[in-house]
Amino acid sequence: MPTPESAAFLAKKPSVPASFDGIDYADTPRLKAAQDAVIREQWVRSMMARLVREELGKCYHKEGVRHLEKCGHLRERYFDLLKDAKVKGYLFEQQNYLEGSENTR
Asked: Which of 1, 7, 31, 70 is the most exposed place for a label (fewest CB within 10 A)?
C-alpha cells in the first residue's frame, strides 16, 4: 500500500475539486475527474462514519453501564457524520445546481 507521501499516492489523488463548478461538460477527461472526486469525497465521509461507529462499539463494550457518560462524545460525532455518510453518486450534483453550496452534503 503506498504511503501518503509516495509518488503513487500523489498520482492517484484527484487534481480537481469535488464539485462540478466551472467544469466544461464537453471536456470528458476533466468531467470524469470531477465525477471521480465527488465519489471519493463521499466514500471518505462514509468510511469516517464507519471508523467512528467501530470506536463507539468498542467504547460501549469497554465502559459497560457507564457508556452513556463515557461514550457521549463519540455518539454525538457519529450522529453528525451519519447525516452525509451515504454514497449517493454524482448524477444529482452533475445535473442540478444548488444555490450557495459548493459541496452538497
From this structure: 1
